[in-house]
Amino acid sequence: MDFSVTVKPSFEEYKIFNRVVRSKLGKSQSKTILLSCILLVIVGLVFLLGEPILAAALLAAWAAALALGYIQAQRRVKKVWDSNAALREGESVFRFTESGLGITSTNGQAHLDYDKLYRLIETDTHFYLMTAINMGSGFPKSLCTPEQQSFIRERCGK
């Protein structure tokens, strides 16, 4: 089965890609959860030791740190998007064949054997073809027929 998927990237799609990749491949969420649990235990102990004002201050600092981390991550995504004209103005064509995956974009062309892909990330709405832990491209599943989606899962999934 041979077929192509053409994608014109948007900032919204790029934000989704970054969120999905961080959540599926990154360890930052688990670190944040672990540190949050440790801090909540400390806050509980401080409160039990009779220092409710200090406990409230620690909780406020924790909430502020989480909010600042989120804002910083969003700014970083926007900065990368704004600085990458090839990403913003380009179009990518993914050509799926029996022998491998061809990718053509404004940056050039590449052909990959399916076993050279780092990972396929599949969500309810998208496929993300990862060539490395932090590098890849995605497209909406709605651009593919159910048969094509099965082909992508079989060839790209590990």
Brief sketch in words of this structure:
This protein folds into two domains: 80 residues, PH-domain like (Roll); 69 residues. Helix content is 53%, strand content 23%.
Summarize the helices and strands and which ones pair or pack.
Layout: E1 3-7, H1 11-25, H2 28-48, H3 52-83, H4 85-89, E2 92-96, E3 101-105, E4 108-112, E5 119-122, E6 126-132, E7 135-140, H5 146-156
Helix pairs in contact: 1-3, 2-3
Textual characterization of the structure:
This protein has 158 residues and is α+β, with helices and mostly antiparallel strands. The chain has helices spanning 11-25, 28-48, 52-83, 85-89, 146-156; strands at 3-7, 92-96, 101-105, 108-112, 119-122, 126-132, 135-140. The strands form 2 sheets. Strands 1-2-3-4 form a 4-stranded antiparallel sheet, with no helix packed on it. Strands 5-6-7 form a 3-stranded antiparallel sheet, covered by helices on one side. Strand 3 and strand 4 (108-112) form a beta hairpin. It is elongated, with a radius of gyration of 21 Å. The two termini are 19 Å apart.
Output the keywords.
single chain, 158 residues, alpha+beta, PH-domain like, 2 domains, 4-stranded antiparallel β-sheet, 3-stranded antiparallel β-sheet, 5 helices, 7 strands, 53% helix, 23% strand, elongated
